[in-house]
Amino acid sequence: MSAHATAPVRGPRQVGGPRRPGRPRRPLFGNRPTRSPLLRALVKHSVMIITLTLMLYPLLWMFGASLRPDNQVFTTLGLWGSDLTLDNYAAGWSGGDQLNFSRFFLNSLTITVLSIVGNLLACALTAYAFARLEFRFKKTLFALVIGTLLLPYHVTLVPQYILFNQLGWVNTILPLVVPKFLATDAFFIFLMVQFIRALPSSLDDAARIDGCGHWGIFWRVVMPLSIPALGTSALFTFINTWNDFLGPMLYLTEPDSWTVSQGLASFLDATGQSAYGSLFAMSTLSLVPVLGFFVAAQKLLVEGIATSGLK
Amino acid sequence: MAHATLRTRPLLGLGLGLLMTVLAGCGQSLPDHSADELRGRGDIAGGIRFSWWGSASRNDRTNAVADLFEAEHPGVEVRREAADFGNYFKRLNVQGAGRNMPCVTQLQARTLGDFTARDALLPLDPMIESGAIDVSDIPEAVLDTGRGEDGRLYMLPTGAAYDALMVNETLAEEAGVALPEPGYDWDDYVTFLRDAAEGLPDGIPATALRGGLPNFFIAYVQGLGEHMFDGNQLGFSRELLVEYWEMWEEIRAEGLANSPAANAEEPPSPEASYVASGDVLSDNRPGNALTPIQGTLDGQGEGQRMTSLPLPSGPAGQGNVLITSGLSIPRNCANVPTAAAFLDFWANDPRSGDTYASDNGAVTNTELLRRQLDDPELPDLKKRELALYQRIVADDPSIVLYPPGYLAVFESAFTRAYEDVAFGNQTVPEAVDTFFAEANDGLAR
Amino acid sequence: MRQHDPGAAGTQVTAGPPATPRDRRDRSRDRRAGRRAAADNRAAYAFLTPWLIGMLVFTIGPMLFSLYLAFTRYDLSSAPEWVGLANFERMFTTDPRYFDSVKVTLTYVAWSVPLLLAVSLGLALLLNRGMRFLTGYRALFYMPSLIGGSVAVAALWRQIFGEEGIVNKALALVGIEHTSWVGDPNSALHTIVILQVWTFGSAMVIFLAGLRQIPRELYDAASVDGAGALRRFRSVTLPMLSPLVLFNLLLSVVNAFQAFTSAYVVSNGTGGPSDSTLFYTLYLYEQGFAQLNMGYAAAMAWVLVLGLALFTGFLFLSSRYWVHYGDER
Question: Is residue B343 domain-resident?
């Protein structure tokens, strides 16, 4: 899809575009013409690092605790204990025949990837209609989108369960995935509508003059320019799905089909033996895919316009 | 526009159709059981679902028992569903709404009422009469905890838990105080706390603040020979609760207990409790918490020892009651014979008892219990837990019939009302009034 | 109004060859209006099809069902029994915990929404450009948001705000003694506000993505006009970002009113101590799934919807005056 080259960009609201070679940029680093920028940078970075340390303390503590023997997890507020061990990782990863985190990671990943694909496709289509087209009942239907955001999901849990049970979908991933392909998550529709509306419509007009229909405008103009929105949506879908507990708890009851969040919950039980060490170890590991995805998606967020926009 | 409407009309129809299905779902029909099925007779074949609560270590034991059952009956598949205690019952409620409860559902006597009141369970008596389920080795008093209001058996009790007074023996010795004698009463208990407090180091209270713990109060009521419930209403008097909470306020005022704020933040799992980290001398905990608590104490590296005692007695006898859990067969189960066979296997097969090793309360089958006590492999702490159970059962503990909504209404309101007292938001009589109003109103719903 | 090309609508579903010469010829305004509307309608509903199906099948049914339940007594098992307005009556007259939950929720909204927006916008501006290692910083600042409502959070929060937590240890160094912050009804709610603000990452990412969409040329033009940093922020950044400010404002208010997971995890599902973190939806959940008063829970939900709808309506009305869209001329 490289047809966006056809859209000539005009007017003061130009988006992206080639960097003007002569644009003056003050270097923050590098040549350091005086000492003060360096000093400023130093201050800036120190502030950053101090803030980060404070903010990340809980996570660092968790990581430290995951390296202590199971019965010493809570013995210190410091980050490291005296004996370091990887036992919690080994025990947590495969604590028994039914509790196998490689399985849980695979399950979570499957659901997450499908959810992202579904959400992006379905919500982008819907958002395009609401953001760019005039049609009957538009206001009413959009009010409905917002309306579904306002209802606490707990009250629709039971009727939905009954519905999925009648469809024979309980104990499959269908109740968690199929609705995503039907844009049932109003949050993402709204998010994308806001992003698409922020794009100058002169671009659509230009594409239209070049003979693009709505489908063409959607695919060749709006979608490439919405990469930051899509990246954001993908990221949030990833996190929401990865951390979702209630949905999998209701619909994926058999340990074979458990997700990571269910696996984590299974380390704790008020009526029996809990395994905090394993909990912290696996919680740490469960952050890795999400963090990796963030790092990858960040490129899309940051470079979105510059690389995939109009060249 | 015309075609827009045309486009949406079939969809609207489809939506309405599905809505009707949803509404109809509430009245979904249950399987028609034949007389034989109701007696647990028929082919032991096909699949059943089995659900329980617990964490990873219990899941492993439970799975092993289910595997044994599958090996015993080739062609039977046991599909397993586990969750932690809190989420387990919420899910069960949703499954109940969809008439989709697992064929073998683990319940607790304290939650049994929620399900019998909604007529969700099959009575097990016909299956016992037909011989499909054998209960001859389960003591009558224990079996009775699985009965509903109508006197029929709806849950086969398989594990009996009890609450115990956990005392850090090492700290008690250092404080120069003797453990309460067998048969001690509430006065002795408070005296024990007072004596201990004198010898304990600063910052280690004699007990965790437990005025809001329903199980402790139940022991108080039993010791007085009073009743917890009268049908769907509270069975004890306001004065009795005022007296009880005033006792706790005295304990608190004398500095024998930890602060209400510290108490409120304490995590529910025994490993992370204050008594397990040696930060309080004593606590009321389920008897099976002895092993995890000692585990954390060992991790502290100071060699402290934990012991468990029965709860205080009263003029009417011992305060301890049994908190049983067991297995039920819901009405929506389409494979009753296999479910009944599973119940029987769980309750009576020696391999089942040895494998599960009383992970969720002492095994109720006396034969299996004896095997475990004789087993040289069974850890000493577990044996002490089981021995205390034997002592309590021998004393003929009274049975509490928990009304529907016990956990959700009674326990939640009780804990909250005492918190209001401890944080100084309400006086004891005010809190008792609030509690009575809320509990009686909620239980009547 | 935007210009529409009438022929365009006919080709929207197949991405095939877009424009025919005939399309371009059809440009007379009067003939166009009706056909364009019709074509736009067709196109719009084609784009909306997946959403419409999902809406009708998975959303509207359960929503209407819950509305019906609000007027019934339903224990999740027996058939719902019509009770008229009894649930609402109980809510507003005889249920003190309902008002407690409203009070807790309003306090929470008042604290967490402004804090969250300020922190996320501030950090988004800071982490947008002009510094080294920005990608690394962004990832690190985002990390707390990744852990979400995990069961581990409760334990972590006690490590910080518990009686023996790091905050109290730090205070002890300067000679202040304090009880547990999570266990004290006076401060428990604020620890959850902090938990919410700690996970500001999502709002920050939305702002960041929005900042990326602002053409640099606008800044350059403003600089040429001699605008300082503050002026540039007020006349370029804020207006261009306003659709996302609206989004984040609306969403953080809705989320705050529906806050559930953090309180559920930290208070172990009780809303304690002493109901001090009994959020609206937490109470709703307790009524519906623990006490099995699903009718009452549904009534609570619809009262919340009504309140939020009023607020949202007001926000959208006011947005005309302060939100700037790129599709407006």
Answer: yes
Domain A89-308 -> CATH class:
mainly alpha
Tell me the two tokens of residue A127: 């958002």
Tell me: do B179 and B119 sit in the same domain. Answer: no
Structural domain harbouring B339: 35-161+324-390
Evaluate whether residue B46 is within a structural domain: yes
Strand pairing class (B46-53; B104-108) = parallel
Q: Is there a single domain that holds both residue B176 and residue B287?
A: yes
Interface test with C, best of A29, A128, A154, A174 (most C CBs within 10 A): A154
Same domain? For B244 and B374 the reply is no
C131-189, pLDDT tens digit by residue?
778 888 888 998 898 887 777 888 888 888 988 888 998 899 998 888 889 999 999 99
ipTM of the complex model: 0.86
Q: What is the pLDDT of residues A154-205, one digit of tens each?
A: 888 888 998 898 888 999 999 999 999 999 999 999 989 988 887 888 888 8
User: Same structural domain for residues B216 and B88?
Assistant: no
Q: DSSP string spanning C147-205?
A: HTT-THHHHHHHHHHSTTSHHHHHHHHTT-----TTTSTTTHHHHHHHHHHHTTHHHHH
Taking only residues 23 to 82 of chain A, the set having a beta carbon closer than 8 angstroms to any beta carbon of chain C reads 23, 28-29, 41, 44-45, 48, 52, 55-59, 61-62, 77
Please judge whether B81 and A253 are an interchain contact, meaning their C-beta atoms are less than 8 angstroms apart.
yes
Say whether residue C85 is in contact with chain A using an 8 A CB cutoff: no
Domains and CATH numbers, chain C: 6-69 (no CATH), 89-322 (1.10.3720.10)
Same-domain check for residues B192 and B134: no
Q: What pLDDT is stored for residue C28 in this prediction?
A: 52
Q: Does one domain contain both B176 and B262?
A: yes
Q: What is the CATH number of the domain that holds B41?
A: 3.40.190.10
For the record, the structure tokens of C43 come out as: 């196109």
From chain A, pick out residues whose CB is under 8 angstroms from the CB of B84: 265-266, 268-270
Q: How many domains does chain B have?
A: 2
CB < 8 Å from A in window 237-266 of C: 240, 243-244, 246-247, 250-251, 254, 258, 260
